[in-house]
Fold this protein.
Amino acid sequence: MTAQAVGEIKRALGDAGWAEGADAARFEVDFFGRYRAPSLMVARPADTAEVAEVVRICRRHGVPIVAQGGNTGLCGGAISAGPQPSVVMSLGRMNRILSILPERYAVVAEAGCIVQTIHDAAAEVDRSFALDWGGRGTATIGGAVSTNAGGINVLRFGPTRDQVLGLEVVLPDGQVWDGLRALRKDTSGYDLKHLFIGAEGTLGIVTKAVMKLHPRPLHDQSLWGAVTEIDRLSELFVLARDVAGSGLTAFELIQGPLLEMALERYPQRVRPVETRADWYVLLRFSGREPVEEQLVAFYERAQQAGLLSDAGLAQSAAQEANLWHLRDEIPPSSMRRGGTMLKWDAAVPIDRIMPCLRAIQARVRAIHAGAQLFAFGHVGDGNLHLSLFPPEESEPEAFAPYLPLLERGVDEVVWQFEGTICAEHGVGTLNYRRIVDQKSPVELMMMAQLRNLFDPGTMLNPGKVVDPKKAAQR
Ligand SMILES: Cc1cc2nc3c(=O)[nH]c(=O)nc-3n(C[C@H](O)[C@H](O)[C@H](O)COP(=O)(O)OP(=O)(O)OC[C@H]3O[C@@H](n4cnc5c(N)ncnc54)[C@H](O)[C@@H]3O)c2cc1C
């Protein structure tokens, strides 16, 4: 049956539309090489009709499909994970901007369109695009929609969910839903697009999206500050908001050792501030008018209040780029440091970030005093990214027995603080089992019923988000 499906897909897509063997290898491993699984084949459709045809073929033969965009996801969501190998459906050839509509403040793009491509196109018509994070040069719109990605602008514009006006989706039975509307308001019943946002390709395959554009800020300026008392982080955030109002477009937290890792890995980057601190913040003020005076006022008030001891203010486009490159390079640097690692993408109510982090540190110390925990995150969204490494001198085998305890221990603290362990990267494979303990039986039951309704055979991305059989048994 599977050989028949492969043959039919090859015929439907033509020579440019599929890959196998060595050509498929890059689609079978995730960005950081943590998740790896063979696919049945890689289907590379050129348009919505071809996506629908592949879905129909797979359905006929009972073959699972996992959609893949730029493959920058951090939870292994785009790699085959079910009991049988999936067809990987790469949207990479569907990468065009279909129309850009400055007067509607909207852009229509195919799902495989790269996030950076939309930034560039928006700038050409004097508009800006809100979605932004370190993977912008590879991540796609379909992937962003399907993970409800966050990034550095959530504070000002919200996550991807808030940027979607309309979607076109191929459903698990091969029907195409044309929901490509550019309406800001529509109360004509259930807003179905939201079902597909953050669904990680389990309810349908996103083929096109209408995304919001915004007026382009004429002035962006950032400050890298050395934090004096990290337990007063909330005060610092409130001060920045007081000074800048909605002009505060980013507020990031970076632990000292992570900056050192990024500088070590990218020696061409310039140290942003001379003072070596345990913690830093990176803020950006944006506006139609120059923001430097506001930034300086913020720094003076923060210094007087004993919140910041030093700061570097970007004075040129190159300095601005240096600060944000350093921030972008923190996740790859920490991921590639080596050694067994656990990571969390947690979110808690904004004012509870530091109490939660302190409680996590205490829990980790209680389980293994030598474990090294590093944090960075999007403070304005209550989002903490944590990486945990074994002690420098430890053998991986000696540390391995502690990993399940550490994972569970930190998860429990996040939940005690009314948080989530899936803030912006999604569930994927990484959190598939863990997320069950974050949800009530009623919530799991609704998720399972929804999945069963759209995809009764669990053909789309099995092994991700929710297990409909297990959820029904709880
Ligand atoms: C350096 C770096 C920094 C990052 N920083 C951030 C950050 O700050 N915030 C953040 O939120 N994320 C961040 N990410 C994670 C990642 O970039 C996002 O999750 C992104 O949205 C994934 O897009 P993608 O096209 O690569 O999707 P993929 O990785 O290919 O897929 C992700 C998930 O979406 C599904 N999917 C993909 N395309 C479709 C489609 N067309 N239809 C249906 N399902 C689909 C896949 O099956 C998978 O489950 C970062 C990644 C890197 C490498």
Observations:
- The mean pLDDT is 94.
- The pocket of flavin-adenine dinucleotide is lined by residues 31, 66-74, 77-78, 91, 111, 133-135, 139-140, 142-144, 146-147, 149-151, 200-201, 205-206, 331-332, 424-425, 461, 464 (CB under 6 Å).
